[in-house]
Specification:
With 480 residues, this protein is of the alpha/beta class. It has 19 helices and ten strands. The longest helix has 21 residues.
């Protein structure tokens, strides 16, 4: 992506920020390709986020009037409720009228949460819920939030082009499918842009990042609206290449796929979850898969596996367990059972504060039968498990950087914080690589190699990155 294009996208937002009272005395590192304007402009720190959300939502409302959202799942409900809470008129389209009552309850809960988070009362929200796509005829920005399916998304965009105004920007929420594929067959492909929010989207005042994806021919106005859209949802937009999985999901699914392979190699589900528990529940791979939805994870994983450009593609057999679980209707927390069993009160339930801390599931008993059929070759040490999980992520990071797909390691660092939900205060994988004791790590990785839990290429990637970081200065480019 050209630096000049990025400046044109970000300059109006940064100019508004610089001239607002909120920016007084606030400086943070800037990233030349994405947010620099004459070497001086920078994004606000996350702790001021609630105060300037209204600035960006007001700008977006003036430009587009009404926002449309298609898809009444959790993500669509969050996006619609957030716009409504900020006073932006929004039309939410859910094709299945049977889901209206659940959708309305979700929106009610979300608005109550947003009222507390924003510290103000939300009056009657300017929100319309309907099953009719024709109701989007007056929307100049439409956000797609339906199932991750190339065919379904393409068909939706073709229909939308016949309904919405000719200058309407279409935003897809795809997490893995390139924009170039989604735009095939459209009469106005230059108006389609991707914005990938990392799960969970709430709380909005926590701050965070979103990937924005556009093609070479995407018009400047659509790029700018995509950045504004992310800002209204409390996220800083980071432009990423239009490739399968973009950046964050290439890192995340390298981690998740390796976890499934470790189970096939004899690591038990309990050993896997306990070894990663110190990183928090989002880093327990089986719980993370349950939260994503096993069917969704399977679709994304198999799609990435089919793409030769994915460094950590691995083997199709890695997904056999997931295929078996999904085939029996075990889709994760939304269905009440996945790799964990969930109390009936928590089936399909989402919580506004991110990971459901009150959720106390138990590992599915059938996993013990699966584990017994694959006895480990030795006593498993937690540190070996963690090392084996991190190595494919490091290898994918190195691949993206060495091929100049992402030319700056600091951007990969930021996306690993946002996409993999690492603690912002610790930084991402690049920060970790700089902090690790080289000798201890080398000994641990050597043991993982002996076990056959990683490849020689993954070790070489770590050595290359470690060597570079010993002499390089890599400052985190975005606010924490």
């Amino acid at each position: 992506m050209a630096t000049q294009d990025s400046r044109e996208v970000f300059r109006p937002l940064l100019t508004q920020w610089r001239h607002s009272s909120l920016s007084a005395g606030r400086r943070c590192p800037s990233h030349g390709q994405f947010v620099a304007e004459n070497g001086g402009a920078s994004w606000p720190q996350f702790d001021t986020w609630p105060k300037w959300l209204s600035l960006f939502s007001g700008e977006l409302a003036r430009e587009v009037g009404r926002v449309g959202v298609v898809g009444g799942g959790w993500m669509g409900a969050v996006i619609a409720a957030q716009y409504a809470a900020l006073g932006v008129p929004v039309t939410l389209v859910e094709s299945n009228a049977c889901n209206f009552s659940l959708l309305q309850e979700h929106v009610r809960i979300l608005l109550a949460h947003l009222s507390r988070e924003l510290g103000r009362t939300i009056g009657t929200p300017p929100l319309q819920i309907t099953a009719d796509l024709e109701s989007l005829a007056d929307c100049n920005l439409v956000v797609e939030a339906i199932t991750e399916s190339l065919g379904r998304k393409r068909n939706l965009f073709k229909v939308l082009e016949t309904v919405v105004p000719s200058d309407c920007t279409l935003i897809t929420g795809t997490s893995a499918i390139p924009i170039r594929l989604l735009s095939e067959g459209l009469t106005r492909p230059e108006q389609l842009v991707g914005v990938h929010f990392f799960h969970p989207l709430l709380p909005i005042t926590r701050g965070g990042y979103a990937e924005v994806i556009w093609g070479d021919g995407t018009r400047l106005q659509s790029r700018r609206l995509a950045v504004l859209h992310a800002a209204c949802l409390g996220r800083i937009a980071i432009p990423v290449p239009d490739q399968p999985g973009f950046v964050a999901n290439r890192l995340l699914f390298a981690y998740l796929q390796r976890s499934l392979r470790l189970m096939a190699w004899g690591v038990s589900a309990r050993e896997l979850e306990e070894a990663t528990s110190f990183l928090g529940p989002w880093w327990q791979p089986l719980r993370r898969l349950d939260e994503i939805g096993l069917d969704t994870a399977l679709r994304v994983g198999k799609y990435l596996l089919a793409e030769r450009g994915w460094q950590s593609a691995g083997s199709s057999s890695d997904w056999d367990l997931l295929i078996s679980w999904v085939g029996r209707g075990r889709l994760g927390r939304k269905s009440g059972e996945g790799f964990y069993l969930y109390p009936s009160s928590q089936m399909g339930r989402r919580e506004c504060g991110g990971f459901p801390q009150s959720c106390t599931p138990s590992l599915h008993p059938e996993l013990e039968l699966y584990d017994r059929r694959r006895k480990p070759r030795c006593q498993v040490q937690p540190v070996w498990v963690v090392a084996a999980l991190l190595l494919p992520v490091i290898a994918e990071s190195y691949s993206l950087w060495s091929r100049r797909v992402i030319p700056e390691l600091a951007v990969i660092d930021a996306l690993s914080v946002g996409g993999l939900l690492l603690p912002p205060e610790t930084g991402g994988f690049v920060s970790w690589l700089k902090a690790w004791d080289v000798q201890v790590v080398r000994e641990t990785f050597s043991r993982v190699v002996e076990l056959g839990w990683c490849t020689k290429e993954e070790i070489e990637a770590w050595e290359h990155l470690r060597g570079f970081l010993e002499v390089a200065h890599c400052e985190h480019p975005f606010p924490r």
